[in-house]
Amino acid sequence: MKTFYLTTPIYYANSLPHLGHLYTMIVADTIARHKRQQGIETFFLTGTDEHGINIERAAQQNNRTPKEQADYVVNYFKKMTAEFGLDTEHGGYDIFMRTSEPFHYEGVSEFWRRAARAKTPKGNEAIYKGHYEGWFCAACAAYKTEDEYAKPKNAADPPTCLIHDIALDRISEDSYFFRLSDYGDALLELYESRPDFVQPETRRNEVTSFVRGGLQDLSVSRLKTSVSWGVPVPDDPEHTMYVWFDALTNYITAIGFGNEQQNRAVGFEKFWPALHLVGKDILRFHAVYWPAFLMAAGVDQPRGIVAHGMWLDPNGRKMSKTLGNTIDLDVLSKHFPVDAIRYFCLREMVFGQDGRFGYEALIDRTNSDLASGLGNLSSRTLTMIKRYISGRVPSGVISEDKLLLAKRTGVDTDATTIAGFIEHARVQYLQELETYSFSRALEVAWSIIARIDKMISEAKPWELAKDVNQSQTLSAVLYRAAETLRWLCVMLYPVMPAATQEIWSQLNLSEKLAELDPANLKWGELKEGAPIGEVKALFPRIDKAKTIEEINRNTEDRSQETEAGGQRSEVGGQKSDDGGTSMRADSPGERVRPSGSHATEADAVPGASQNETKPPTPQHATEADAVPGATGVANFVDIADFTKVELRVGQVLTAARIPKSDKLLLLSVDIGEEKPRQILAGIAEHYTPEEMVGRKIAVVANLKPRKMRGHESQGMLLAASVGENDKPVLATFTEDVPNGARLK
Ligand code: MSP
Question: What span, in angstroms and rounded, lies between the C-alpha atoms of 283 and 553?
């Protein structure tokens, strides 16, 4: 039996997945189901990448051990994949791989040993010990060269990652290196000899030119004292393996490389090589580093690497936790049928290119293509069979003497015309699937729906039913529609497993859709006279305005919950201010934040003058305040109320006294927005302008702007109020924090 091994990336266990991660799984799941329908024994892997500094940091931030952090994320993943029908039970992945598995430790250690024994194509040792000096992005888990980071404004600050906009870590330590620089020619030969090794072609060209540009050796270990959460380097446990070396190797350890038990359970020889499905963001790791590691360890190359594009928000920015514009999967699954989401992802995104996500577009597609399209075709056909033909599959044959009558109603008397159209569409559909052109494949499938809809509208079965002479025409029309539905179920099963199964059951068919190859469909095999099942509506229409409103409400509730729970942090505290924030439905490109209001100085600081009214004293921004039983708090507020206050890190750029005011300082403060905020603060008796410049402070960013002494104040500083005189002592930070980071 033929075999096929397909992988998704294994996802970082530092934060919960969003639509971007779901997308790769949906694509992989569709491919895997299609292969299985073809009778190919398919092994489909997904899982989590659990080691490295970003997991360590996320764990620390959430008061968990790294393993607890990974378990937490894995639990969510498992719940989510079950909900979206992607897990083993629903016919999805075959293994949820975790790099914390002992068999992985064994396998990856063996892989390292093999590479460490190997010579490069130029006769050098493939792995050698040296000293690494440079910058590292924890979120990318990648070393950054000069052209990959932004230099800081202040020379003393670290540079920032161009992708994640977070401060890089400086690394200066002994490290093992992989001699990547010796593999350039071998890699180019690989791309040359196997033109489909990297797909689509544009990505192949990118990879080729990257390698042509010259490769540098790669640091493949960290000192255990810097990164302890990882696989120890064999025979040198003071070092842990670089997380990408460890993570990429999961693709072979999962099926048994380096561990006999796992090998018996799955079968390395049986399934390797794999097809790796990845986002274009991690192509270099898969198409350059991984093949080089495999060459060194003497393991066969993958079947290929297929890169898809990124989901962007409607403003064209990549969807990511760091930007706070992700689509929350719980909100998504609450408002949309799983198959509508699967269909939308595959239909809307031109595979390989980036695509924009918008809830409106999702609702529109669900209503037009699914409710009015496939769903309507199914329910009207089956309802008419129930009503006019007493619920049994009618005959598709029109006898000679009735042909003319049928023709008069616009019904094509030659059944093969419809069959021919659909057969041709099936060939096209399958060709598009083979090249991962899901969007075009679905267009083709929907052309079948349009064709049959047209046949029904023209033939008007409800009119035919009134004329006994037209009973054969009526039967033939409904037979053709029902037979088309049967074909559509088999063809569309990999894209919409649940909905096609539902129609299949309504047709009262019992073979397993998962095992029917659409290439083997033959027109006319729907058995005449067989009773159809119970007819139920598929894909109810979605009320756009109402749903958008609900999504907005839900998104806000969710971010409040998750922010409160501290569960959604990313990259161990570096840019985790917006961990739980998701895209709303009405302003999809915007971060969820209370809209455009600013604070006033008088609100900000105790001790401001009379007409600059004094605010209620700010509370501490910890979750404990909202917990009943916390001490020292007179009136509790809900976490929901607390999160209405937008607190951000600001840096004072300029500070000046205000004429005729002893108390006020006029500050301009950078809170991570395009323009600095102007803030009046009643602290002049305690802080000089000079003392303030450069200081990092906590700012309430969403109080209503207010004018005082002719100046608008667009924010409020937080300060402790100390002693009888309410002396303000500014809240500040002892560690480096980026401007604009959210306090919560
Ligand atoms: N852990 C590494 C992969 C190691 S594989 C040996 C990693 N993990 S990740 O959690 O960051 O997930 C990356 C993958 O998630 C991307 O390659 C892509 O498949 C998917 N996506 C994440 N954000 C995405 C979008 N905005 N759009 C589409 N896919 C995205 O990198």
Answer: 37
Q: Is 388 in the pocket of ligand 1 (CB under 6 A)?
A: no
Pocket test for ligand 1, best of 281, 283, 353 (most atoms within 8 A of CB): 281
Is pLDDT of 448 > 80? yes
Q: Per residue in 712-725, pLDDT tens?
A: 889 998 888 876 67
Tokens for 265? 């359970």
Single-letter amino acid, residue 419: A
Instruction: Identify the bridge partners of residue 150 per DSSP, sorted by sequence position.
Output: 160
β-pair partners for 232: 240
Of 8, 25, 49, which is best to mutate to test ligand 1, by the most ligand atoms within 8 angstroms of its C-beta? 49
Cα distance between residue 569 and residue 72, in whole Å: 12
Beta carbon of 318 within 6 Å of any ligand 1 atom: yes
Which bin fits 567, alpha (ψ -120 to 50), beta or left (φ > 0)?
alpha
- pTM, 2 dp: 0.77
Instruction: State the DSSP H helix or E strand holding residue 211, giving kind and residue range, or none if neither.
Output: helix 201-212
Quote the pLDDT of residue 559. Answer: 61
Parallel, antiparallel or unpaired: strands 127-137 and 355-356: unpaired
609 versus 211: the higher-pLDDT residue is: 211
How many DSSP H helices and E strands does the chain contain?
Answer: 26, 27
Cβ-proximal residues to 229 (8 Å cutoff; 6+ apart), any chain: 51, 52, 53, 55, 56, 59, 66, 240
Q: Can you name the residues that pair with 382 across neighbouring β-strands?
A: none
Query: 562 falls in which pLDDT band (50, 70, 90)?
Result: low
Tell whether the model's pLDDT for residue 675 goes beyond 90: no
- 674-692: burial string, b at 16+ Cβ within 10 Å, e else: eebbbbbbbbbebbeeeeb
Computed over every residue of the chain, the mean pLDDT equals: 87
The rounded distance, in Å, linking the Cα atoms of 582 and 559 is 7
Of 33-47, 465-479, 574-588, 618-632, where does mean pLDDT reach its minimum? 618-632
Nearest to 487 by CA among 544, 538, 525: 525
Question: C-alpha distances in angstroms, 200 versus 85, 124, 238, 278, 350?
Answer: 28, 33, 41, 12, 12
The residue among 113 and 569 whose pLDDT is bigger is: 113
**H or E, element range at 86:** none
Using the predicted structure, report yes or no on whether residue 189 has a pLDDT greater than 90: yes
Residue 61 has pLDDT above 70, yes or no: yes
pLDDT band at 527 (very low <50, low <70, confident <90, very high): very high
Which two tokens mark 727?
Answer: 């002396």
Read off the pLDDT of residues 32-46 as tens digits, 9 standing for 90 and up.
Answer: 999 999 999 999 999
Question: In the annotation, is 345 catalytic?
Answer: no
Burial 308-341 (b: 16+ CB within 10 A, else e): bbbbbbbeeebbbbbbbbbbbbbbbeebbbbbbb
Consecutive H or E run containing 170: strand 169-178
Nearest to 103 by CA among 300, 252, 240, 270: 252
CA 132 centroid distance within chain: 33
90 is catalytic: no
Dihedral of the alpha carbons of 460, 464, 466, 469, in degrees to the nearest 10: 170
510-524 pLDDT, tens digit each: 999 999 999 999 999
* pLDDT tens digits, one per residue of 680-689: 998 988 888 7
**Cβ contact 341:362 at 8 Å:** yes
Answer yes or no: is the C-beta of 12 below 6 A from any ligand 1 atom.
yes
pLDDT confidence of residue 589: 35
Q: Which one has a higher pLDDT value, 270 or 147?
A: 270
Beta strands in 313-397 (DSSP E): 355-356
Give the residue from 556, 577, 575, 555 showing the smallest Cα distance to 566. 577
Cα atoms found within 13 Å of the Cα of residue 545, Cβ hemisphere only: 0
